[in-house]
Amino acid sequence: MNISTEDLDDLKYAKSLLENVGFAAKITNSLGEPIEKGFDLLPEGWAEIVASTTQKALQVAVNSAKLTMVRTIKTDSADTLHKIMVAGTGAAGGFWGLPALAIELPLSTTIMLRSIADIARSEGHLLADPQVKIECIEVFALGGPGNHDDAVETGYFAIRAGLATAVTDAAKHIAQKEISETGAPVLIKLITQIASRFGIQVSEKIAAQAVPVIGAAGGAIINSLFIDHFQGMARGHFIVLRLENKYGAEEIKQVYLGL
Prior knowledge:
11 helices, 72% helix, 259 residues
């Protein structure tokens, strides 16, 4: 296809972000502590707590983030500011551990959703568009390859295909009603599907924070890595969507897969 050199470079960059190492590997590389140690330290029943809290956190984030930044000027996103905000919540989470998850995770997830929306806007997408709002939420499912998701399809386009029906139905719903109506069955279905994948990264985050030598300072670092990871997923995702709007979805997919 006749894609410009600049757009091809953007697509290569997007793929490098979307298919990069998983969140667990980034924690290990940055802190020098394999998170497997943390999994052994977590109390019995922690997986159920994480699963429940993750879904509630996404629901709170969708209600609270207020995806209303509709400026058409393509300015840079405030990535650093959002990282600082999430680092603050991470410090508290690192100090108090698993009991703080129910408070810390919704706050962190809300800030991250705002950051994701800011990145979407910076890539030229209008947040007044219901489809774009849903695509912001979908980013939480784009975790990249990880150590503990062997049973889950991890390829970028495979994940999007798996969520396609739920994303379309949710976008149609909020085209007619407010996105804050998270009690709608179509939104509950989408959030549930996304939470099953987002929970993988949340589990890895909690396991890392459970390692005693990490503590509160480490919690801030881990949350900075956490939002950095999803900021990268968001940047890659919205570059791909921008190019799909320009050249066609199937055309961009074929070029992406061939890179």
